[in-house]
Design brief:
Blueprint: H1 13-16, E1 17-19, H2 22-31, H3 38-56, E2 76-78, H4 79-87, H5 91-103, H6 116-124, H7 157-160, H8 168-171, H9 178-194, E3 199-202, H10 203-210, H11 213-220, E4 234-235, E5 241-243, H12 249-260
Antiparallel strand pairs: 1-5, 2-3, 3-4
Helix pairs in contact: 3-9, 4-10, 9-12
The chain binds iron/sulfur cluster (2 copies).
Length: 266
C-alpha cells in the first residue's frame, strides 16, 4: 500500500505538467551540481524533510505509531536517501539489518523501471507511462520490527509521504488528499534531482548496493562505476518539468519558494 507514483494522474499530461521558470531552473541546476559534496546533499534532504513536516502539520491524517500496513517491501528510494540512512545507523543495527536483508534478498519486490523524473519527461512529451507491477502481498518492509520502524527519524521520503485520512487497515486503501499527492510528486522529483548522479530502486537493492566499500567510495566521489543495469537499480535524472495540476499550483508555490531558499549549511 505504500505510495510510490500516481499513475492515474498522468491521463491529461498538458494539465499536469508545470514548466519551470528560469529563476527556479537556475536554483535546480546549482543543486544537482556534481561539485556538491554528498554531505551537503544530505543536508539539503534534511531541510526538505523539515519543509515537508511543516506542510503536513495542519493536515488531517490518521497515521499513528504502530500503524504499519503501508510498510511493505515495495518502498523505493534514491541512493542519497539510502546513504543517509546507512550513515546514521549504529554498527549493530547496520549488521543486523543487512544480514536480515541478505537472507530475504531473493523475495519478490517492486523494482521500478522508470524514475519519477523520467515519467514527468515522458508525460510532457505526451507518451504513455507503462504500468508496473507492485503488490502489497509481496510482504512487509524488512526493517519493520514489532509494528514499529527502527529507523523512523531517518526513513526515506517514500515512507514519509505515505499518509492517509483514514486508517488503511480499516479501509483497505490509503485515503490521500489530492494536494498531498501533488506535493509528494514535487518532493520526489526534487530529491531525485539533487541525487541526479545516483540511482533509484527498491529499498533492499539500494541498501545492498551501498553496502560495498567500492560502491560507497564511488558514490561519495559522485562517480558510480558499476552500471545501474547490473544492480537492479535505475539511473536518476534531473528535473525537466514538474507535475503540478493547475488547481494545486497556488498551494504548491510556497513549497517551491522554500526549496529555492535552501542552502547547504556547511
Ligand atoms: S494510516 Fe495508512 S498511511 Fe498512515 S501509517 Fe497507517 S497504514 Fe500507513
Ligand atoms: S523504513 Fe520504516 S517506515 Fe519505511 S517501510 Fe520500512 S519500517 Fe516502514
Amino acid at each position: 500500500m505504500i505510495y510510490l507514483r500516481p499513475i492515474g494522474r498522468y491521463d491529461s499530461p498538458s494539465g499536469v505538467i508545470y514548466r519551470l521558470g528560469s529563476r527556479y531552473r537556475k536554483t535546480l541546476n546549482a543543486n544537482k551540481s556534481d561539485r556538491m559534496e554528498i554531505k551537503d546533499k544530505v543536508d539539503i534532504l534534511d531541510q526538505m524533510f523539515t519543509i515537508y513536516d511543516d506542510f503536513l502539520a495542519d493536515k488531517q491524517v490518521a497515521c499513528e505509531k504502530g500503524c504499519d500496513s503501508c510498510c511493505t517491501r515495495n518502498v523505493t528510494l534514491t541512493t542519497l536517501e539510502g546513504f543517509r540512512l546507512l550513515d546514521r545507523m549504529g554498527k549493530a543495527q547496520h549488521d543486523l539489518l543487512l544480514s536480515d536483508i541478505r537472507t530475504r534478498e531473493g523475495n519478490e519486490r517492486f523494482m521500478p523501471r522508470l524514475t519519477i523524473n523520467q515519467m514527468a519527461a515522458m508525460c510532457a512529451q505526451g507518451k504513455e507511462i507503462p504500468e508496473e507491477e507492485n503488490r502489497p502481498e509481496w510482504g512487509s518492509c524488512p526493517l519493520l520490527t514489532d509494528a514499529l520502524c527502527p529507523v523512523y527519524e531517518n526513513r526515506p521520503f517514500g515512507c514519509r509521504c505515505m499518509v492517509s485520512r483514514a486508517n488503511c487497515a480499516q479501509t483497505g486503501y490509503a485515503d490521500m488528499d489530492p494536494l498531498i499527492l501533488s506535493v509528494n510528486d514535487v518532493f520526489l522529483q526534487y530529491i531525485e534531482h539533487i541525487d541526479a548522479l545516483g540511482y533509484s530502486g527498491n529499498f533492499i537493492d539500494i541498501l545492498l548496493f551501498l553496502d560495498t566499500d567500492q560502491n560507497r567510495h564511488d558514490y561519495l566521489n559522485s562517480h558510480l562505476n558499476k552500471p545501474a543495469s547490473e544492480t537492479g537499480l535505475i539511473p536518476n535524472h534531473p528535473v525537466q518539468v514538474l507535475m503540478i495540476p493547475p488547481e494545486h499550483r497556488k498551494a504548491v508555490a510556497p513549497i517551491l519558494e522554500a526549496f529555492r531558499s535552501i542552502r547547504p549549511r556547511g
